[in-house]
Amino acid sequence: MDLSNAVWRKSSFSGGNGGQCVEVADNLTGVVAVRDSKVPDGPELLVGASGWRTFVGGVKTARSFGTLS
């Protein structure tokens, strides 16, 4: 998939020190691309949009129950 038009954004939980950072591009049709911001030319993980919504919803639920810190 051509990701030349991907608009990458860093996780709001990423620190400003360049540490463990994940970036996502959710401006693509039907998929969300995920990459390690420390290796922007490295591989990307492509996730279907519905799968991404399920993942994010699960993380939010886990955080609300205190199972993720």
How would you summarize this macromolecular structure in one to three sentences?
Helices cover 23% and strands 23% of the residues. The protein has 69 residues and is an alpha+beta fold.
Question: What does this entry look like structurally?
Answer:
Pfam families: DUF397. The chain has 69 residues and is α+β, with helices and mostly antiparallel strands. The chain has one domain (9-64). It has one helix and four strands; from the N terminus they run E-E-E-E-H. The protein has one helix spanning 49-64, and strands at 9-10, 22-25, 31-36, 45-48. A hairpin with a 5-residue loop joins strand 2 (22-25) and strand 3. The chain starts with 8 loop residues before the first strand and ends in a 5-residue tail after the last helix.
Secondary structure blueprint with pairings:
Layout: E1 9-10, E2 22-25, E3 31-36, E4 45-48, H1 49-64
Antiparallel strand pairs: 1-2, 2-3, 3-4
User: How many structural domains?
Assistant: 1
- In whole angstroms, how far apart are the ends? 34 Å
Number of helices: 1
Structural class: alpha+beta
What is the alpha-carbon Rg in Å?
A: 13 Å
**Parts with pLDDT < 50 across at least 5 consecutive residues:** none
Mean pLDDT: 87
Shape: flat
Largest beta-sheet characterization: 4 strands, antiparallel
Tell me the helix content: 10-25%
Secondary-structure element order, N to C = EEEEH
User: What is the strand arrangement across the widest sheet?
Assistant: 1-2-3-4
How many DSSP-defined strands? 4
Range of strand content: 15-25%
